[in-house]
Design a protein that fits this description.
4-stranded parallel beta sheet, 17% strand, 12 helices, 359 residues
């Protein structure tokens, strides 16, 4: 598996060289085999919108705060005539209607987290006719017609699984896998990444539960799994990992290697309990990178059609208070506050100073 990961890294590096003429390739890193997209330049200032779907968890709230923090930085504010954020819930039709409204109102660019990644072909055509740039991120679309911003979800899953198996010397009897929201492409790809490592381990029993990326749900399903299956040699969790750790502590489970998410409270627990493993995250600050990409496209720059941002991560032995976790901040705070390859990451104060509501 290590050789496969190395091959993937070489492929990404080679692709970066192949697309060295795209705009800021150190930030907008092309996914292997991707095409490029560009548009005719428009004069600034720009009218921008972020059409979020579900807003009921801390990750989505911080994505909204990251987008607002980006828009308020002086170097960006000078380019923006109007910036609007709306959240529409888990209703694909409502999200499409909101995007159509912004297109009809003459907005220059719209970023969004797709509720349903298969429903946007007509919207893409309408945006193209109107000259509106679309930049989806996180839960991206099943299309190659627009620039999309993401981390490699398969690489994120593989990183967690490979880390715990490395700690165990490549051998384990039983591993618990805490998955995310069923039917979501992100959940699918993270699971595939984890399985690409774990299914090659001889004699390994893989127990899967559905945590919905939610702390409370994860705690319940992990508690049930412990009651049914007993002890595990390692755990890999997509998100909501604080619930997973709490369930294991409540059951008196021994400390085992874990691949977990990047919430502040998760890293605090790793440090407090001396849990070996890795904390790696899908950073909500990618909402700001999507806006950065939208402006770059409006200025006439060429970008990769699929951008894979670096995965924010820290091994347990590198955890440091007020550096990569923050004891005085809420446990729900996500430590993925930015990408140094693109711009200076947001400070916690900068993010928490933004309202999580629509504007």
């Amino acid at each position: 598996m290590k050789n496969l990961l190395l091959s993937s890294a070489i492929a990404i590096a080679s692709t970066s060289v192949a697309y060295a003429n795209t705009y800021r390739p150190e930030c907008f890193v092309p996914a292997p085999g991707t095409s490029t997209i560009s548009y005719d330049a428009k004069e600034k200032p720009y009218r921008l919108a972020f059409v979020n779907g579900f807003a009921g968890n801390d990750w989505r709230i911080q994505a909204i705060q990251s987008a607002k923090a980006w828009a308020k930085r002086p170097e960006n504010a000078d380019m923006i005539e109007e910036f609007t954020v709306v959240s529409v819930g888990n209703d694909s039709a409502a999200q499409i209607a909101a995007i159509d409204n912004f297109i009809a109102a003459g907005y220059d660019a719209i970023t969004f987290i797709a509720v349903n990644p298969t429903a946007f072909e007509p919207v893409i055509r309408r945006a193209e006719r109107a000259g509106t740039v679309l930049v989806p991120f996180d839960n991206v679309l099943d299309t190659d017609k627009v620039v999309q911003i993401n981390e490699s979800q398969m690489a994120l899953g593989a990183l967690k699984a490979q880390t715990v198996m490395d700690i165990l010397g490549g051998e384990a009897g039983r591993v618990l896998m805490v998955n995310g929201l069923p039917g979501n492409a992100t959940d699918r790809d993270r699971r595939l990444g984890m399985m690409s490592v774990l299914e090659d381990v001889d004699g390994l029993e893989i127990v899967e539960v559905v945590g919905n990326w939610d702390t409370g749900t994860s705690q319940k399903v992990v508690a049930d799994a412990l009651a049914t299956h007993g002890e595990f040699d390692a755990v890999v969790s997509q998100h909501g990992s604080a619930g997973t750790i709490n369930a294991m502590q409540a059951a008196g489970h021994p400390i085992v290697p874990m691949g977990v998410d990047g919430e502040n409270g998760v890293r605090m627990l790793m440090e407090e309990l001396d849990i070996p493993g890795v904390s790696a995250s899908q950073a909500p600050a990618m909402s700001a990178i999507a806006l950065e990409a939208a402006v770059a496209l409006l200025q006439g720059n060429e970008l990769p059609q699929t951008v894979f941002l670096p995965i924010p991560q820290v091994n347990a032995d590198a955890l440091a208070a007020d550096v990569n976790y923050f004891p005085d901040l809420p446990k729900s705070f996500n430590t993925g506050t930015g990408f140094v390859e693109c711009f200076e990451p947001f400070s916690p104060e900068e993010l928490l100073g933004q309202s999580p509501d629509n504007t």
